[in-house]
């Protein structure tokens, strides 16, 4: 995993989202980070953009790849410094 | 690897917390397993950066948390149960690791989820559940200054309106599909109840200055990359309202997949239990919303009863039964007040997606006779959520009953399944 710059202010952490560094508040879920970046989490089988529906780990609409593991439910995962997220 | 507990509780919402705490306090060796990162379930979900549960919904959230933390309960957060590899054993996964948990007594407190009904545009990003937007805001979603329309049905609409308002959102309006008459009847019936839920919340809506429309529902969400407006039917008149978020869900439905997988008898969509929360399967108890949508106070007392019964404290458990019975009318009245109106069946057009995992439209489903036939021909309900979202929609729209539940209950890492087989070898 590439070394990332230290957080500029306390309480925020840096993550990589689709190859770009972004800062999020500590304690935010990955689903929130993706929403802040105005990105869909995934593209559906017919090509539609999708984001979280249930936000409690049931609908699987928020899934994305985290640190190389695909199909993680991003609403159930907290952001960690240096985390590498790829929307799918 | 298998860990053994005298009492295993699945689900760390109010019912599960009460069950685990009471069982442990009565001397049982207890584990509480839950797929969220923190105990509290949905209603007591903590906010980012704020330690402790959400106390705004009451029920003694802070006190219960304190009791749980002071007890000997082993807390297993972030674990999703997906299979029963052998009798009296559950298998669960956390990230990419899996483990078995065996038990003498099992208490299922799997809670409920929001019911979603398809309407054109409901798949657009930023259209989400009512509890969902609250969970997202608690998880850090910046909502200050954002325009939110709340729609659907159930007491949660008003509770979430208050949360969003406090977080700085512009709650444009609330559209409740139930009629004013049925809500009024419900409010009156609450006067004799301990929890004067709706009455208090309607006051809240008025003090928030948020228009609260009864007999109103969403017809269409509009936008391309994300929702930009919603067309509501307000007292029979269509009105387009610009918004940044549409939070829409139609009350809640119980999570009965695990009880079904374990063979517990289901009656009219809920897990059948006796006075002491025992299901039809010996050594398996069930508490909270899976036994009937009765709300927070009911879930707590059911959890207490189940915990005491699992620990063998039958006399103490029995003493709580009258308290539970006194609340049982609430569930019936709640269901009646927020019953879905038939007009909602016509919201989905032939082109409206019902199954979001496999993008199966309503038109492709209508000519199939059963849920199973539709699944086999269209893949409806066969994606990652395994029909948890479209199943309740299809049940309302087409009157279909859900299929039997088969393991794994959730999409699971192959390694989790593979290691189970390896362990099974002598």
Under the CATH scheme, which architecture of chain A would be assigned? Answer: Roll
Helix content of chain B: 25-40%
Overall tally of structural domains of chain B = 3
Reported for the largest beta sheet of chain A, the result is: 5 strands, mixed
Tally of separate domains of chain A? 1
Shape estimate of chain B: globular
Strand order of the largest sheet of chain A: 2-1-7-5-6
Mean pLDDT of chain B: 91
Uncertain segments of chain B: none
CATH homologous superfamily (4th level) name of the largest domain in chain B: FAD/NAD(P)-binding domain
CATH class annotation of the largest domain in chain B: Alpha Beta
- Assembly type of the shown chains? heterodimer
Task: Tell me the β content of chain B.
Answer: 25-35%
Our count of helices of chain A gives 1
**Count of individual helical segments of chain B:** 14
**CATH fold label of the largest domain in chain B:** FAD/NAD(P)-binding domain
Q: Would you give an account of this structure?
A:
The complex is a heterodimer of chains A (88) and B (426). Chain A has one domain (12-82): Ubiquitin-like (UB roll). Helices cover 8% and strands 32% of the residues of chain A. Chain A is built from 1 helix and 7 strands. Chain A has one helix at residues 30-36, and strands spanning 12-17, 20-25, 42-43, 49-50, 63-66, 69-73, 84-86. Mean pLDDT of chain A is 90; it is low at 1-9. In chain B, helix 2 (61-70) links the parallel strand 2 (30-34) and strand 3. Chain B has helices spanning 14-25, 61-70, 130-138, 156-166, 180-190, 197-208, 257-261, 296-310, 314-319, 321-337, 362-365, 371-378, 390-398, 414-424, and strands spanning 2-10, 30-34, 74-77, 80-86, 89-94, 97-108, 112-114, 127-128, 147-153, 170-176, 212-213, 216-223, 227-234, 237-242, 245-250, 252-254, 266-267, 270-271, 284-286, 353-355, 360-361. Chain B contains 14 helices and 21 strands. Chain B is an alpha/beta fold and 426 residues long. At the A-B interface, helix 1 and strand 4 of A face strand 8 and helix 3 of B.
């Amino acid at each position: 995993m590439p070394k990332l710059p230290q957080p500029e202010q306390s309480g925020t952490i840096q993550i990589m989202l689709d190859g770009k560094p972004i800062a999020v508040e500590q304690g935010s879920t990955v689903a929130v980070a993706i929403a802040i970046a105005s990105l869909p989490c995934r593209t559906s089988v017919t090509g539609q953009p999708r984001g979280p529906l249930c936000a409690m780990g049931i609908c699987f609409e928020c899934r994305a790849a985290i640190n190389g593991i695909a199909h993680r439910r991003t609403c159930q995962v907290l952001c960690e410094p240096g985390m590498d997220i790829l929307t799918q | 690897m298998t860990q053994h507990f005298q009492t295993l509780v699945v689900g760390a919402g109010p019912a599960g917390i009460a069950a685990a705490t009471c069982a442990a306090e009565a001397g049982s060796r207890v584990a509480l397993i839950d797929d969220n990162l923190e105990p509290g379930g949905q209603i007591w979900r903590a906010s980012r950066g704020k330690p402790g549960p959400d106390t705004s919904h009451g029920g003694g959230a802070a006190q219960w948390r304190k009791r749980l933390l002071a007890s000997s309960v082993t807390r297993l957060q972030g674990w999703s149960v997906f299979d029963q590899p052998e009798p009296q054993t559950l298998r669960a996964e956390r990230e990419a690791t899996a483990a078995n948990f065996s038990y003498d007594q099992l208490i299922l407190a799997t809670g409920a989820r929001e019911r979603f009904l398809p309407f054109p545009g409901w798949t657009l990003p930023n259209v989400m559940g009512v509890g969902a937007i609250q969970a997202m805001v608690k998880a850090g979603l910046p909502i200050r200054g954002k325009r939110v329309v709340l729609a659907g049905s159930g007491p949660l609409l008003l509770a979430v309106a208050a949360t969003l308002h406090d977080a700085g959102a512009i709650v444009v309006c609330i559209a409740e599909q139930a009629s004013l008459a049925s809500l009024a009847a419900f409010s009156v019936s609450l006067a004799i109840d301990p929890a004067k839920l709706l009455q208090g919340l309607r006051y809240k809506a008025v003090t928030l200055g948020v228009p609260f429309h009864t007999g109103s529902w969403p017809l269409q969400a509009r936008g391309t990359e994300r929702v930009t407006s919603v067309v509501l039917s307000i007292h029979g008149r269509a009105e387009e309202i610009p918004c940044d978020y549409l939070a829409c869900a139609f009350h809640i439905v119980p999570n009965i997949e695990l009880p079904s997988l374990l063979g517990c008898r289901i009656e009219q969509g809920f897990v059948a239990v006796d006075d002491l929360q025992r299901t039809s399967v010996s050594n398996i108890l069930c508490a909270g919303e899976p036994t009937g949508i009765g709300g927070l106070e009911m879930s707590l007392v059911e959890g207490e009863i189940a915990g005491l019964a699992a620990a063998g404290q039958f006399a103490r458990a029995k003493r709580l039964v009258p308290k539970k019975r006194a609340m049982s009318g609430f569930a019936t009245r709640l269901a009646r007040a927020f019953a879905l109106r038939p007009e909602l069946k016509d919201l989905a057009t032939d082109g409206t997606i019902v199954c979001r995992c496999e993008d199966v439209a309503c038109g492709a489903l209508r000519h199939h006779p059963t849920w199973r036939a539709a699944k086999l021909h269209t893949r409806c309900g066969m994606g990652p959520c395994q029909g948890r979202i479209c199943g309740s929609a299809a049940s309302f729209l087409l009157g279909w009953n859900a299929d039997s539940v088969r393991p794994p209950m959730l999409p699971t890492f192959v390694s989790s399944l593979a290691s189970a087989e390896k362990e099974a070898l002598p």
